[in-house]
Amino acid sequence: VATLGITEHAAEQLGEVVFVELKDVGDSFAKGDEVGVVESVKAASEIYAPVDCEILAANEGLADTPADVNESPESDAWFYKIRITDESQLEELMDEEAYKKLIS
I need a labelling partner for 37 at 20 to 30 A (CA). Which of 55, 73, 78, 87 fits? Predict the structure, then answer.
């Protein structure tokens, strides 16, 4: 089981989040599929599956308090708890060090 959300850096880039649309528990997605939408005062941004997965839980609270994404994107404002269905795809993801280098 993994947690899917956005980073603090991504939340800062979005600006004030005003709406979050999430998919349903039980839905399955392939890597790269759209799994939701985050709308801010700046723009609407799609959320994509980083790996093949099944949604085990969706953070329903974000519908009522989307600004939580700005307040705590890397903790309380997670989007999904997912089951990874192809663990070999994890090797293709960047680690925290590579991500920090990318955004600097």
Answer: 87
